[in-house]
Amino acid sequence: MIPEIELKLLPEIKQFQEEKLHELLQYLSENSPYYKRMFLENNIAISDIKLLEDLEKLPVTTKEDLSRFNDDFLCIDQSELIDYVTTSGTTGNPVFFGLSDKDLDRLAYNEAISFACSKITKNDTVQLMTTIDRRFLAGLAYFLGARKLGAGIIRVGAGIPELQWDSIFKFNPTYLIAVPSFLLKLIEYAENNNITINSSSVKGVICIGEPLKEQDFSDNSLSQKIKSKWDIDLYSTYASTEMSTAFSECEFQHGGHHHPELIIVEILDEDNKPVKNGEDGELVVTTLGVEAMPLLRFKTGDVVRVHYDACGCGRNSLRLGPVIGRKKHMIKYKGTTIYPPAMYNLLNDFSEIENYIIEIDKNEIGLDNITIKLGTNAASEELMKRLKDHIRAKLRVLPNIIILPIAEIHKLKFPGINRKPILFVDKR
Predict the structure, then answer these.
(1) How many domains does the chain have?
(2) Final residue of a domain: which of 326, 352, 387?
(3) For residues 113 and 121, what is the distance between their CA atoms, to the nearest angstrom?
(4) 88 and 94 in contact (C-beta within 8 Å)?
């Protein structure tokens, strides 16, 4: 189930996207209060935007714009909305998104072709280990995508290792959809309850929310930990509520494949100019085919690298490498630039660390200060020495480290009604 456009050559993909861009601009100029105002205030004639390179003539849309003028992005009457979702709010206030019936069809199609990219077929059964409620778009997308593909789906929800294993051995799913660190909980539960992990039906996991790869696409420590105990394939994905589109790995697992019919991708520098091929930059997206709340040049805040070389699966669309970090979360610490995922990878190297959270604030002279709060039952001088040596070797600097009760860290990670665990707190 590979869309024909993904097999075309890059010039053909570009021409296809330019036609879709023209349709989007026309739609926005007629239906979007926000973009109509933006075109008028900036004296923009949409007829001047013909090529993808012409996108530079348009202002970008920021998360702040989306939050401040949220309702003005709605292009249809509220009576036509079928589903209401909000963003997770991990980098600010949650933002409302409404989806029409057409948008739900698009969402299902996106997830179906993304699942197919990761080798899921109508003959597979997928176990969903994330919530489908609480205004969460991803869980709904997974359900709709599996249904569109014709695959079976088991809606277990988040947590509860005992119920997860019970469902695995009762219904024999071939794939799981899970946050990868939760797989370690499943492994731990299995080992403590005499469950033979590799006797299960599971052959792969669609992983969400946490990085699994280094920038060269080798497995990071979290991925290595999981695979050392469980003989399964792990597929990385990248998506967001704002995009309503996923970038999923194929069997070659060298980055998330782009769906050209659903989204336009730009990688921009600090001045909102395109970076050179192979350079890191902020991912900026333009959604295609969205009816209720399409976005034009939306800045995701995520720093990534794009890969254009051919993939063995036959797709020619670009691929996104692992997210390097959120632009907003970049830390300058003792002359070194650090993104939180680099610290996550280091902490995941230590099986003794049960949980952690990283806090950033300013010191007395206004410089970034990092505090790593760890939860462990194995605190010792020897562990601290190994941990500090490992961090110094990899980051070249050593943040402050505090050991707290595991339960206290858990409360910090899951404040209030948050749907996702919080690993990073920015107090700057």
Answers:
(1) 2
(2) 326
(3) 10
(4) yes
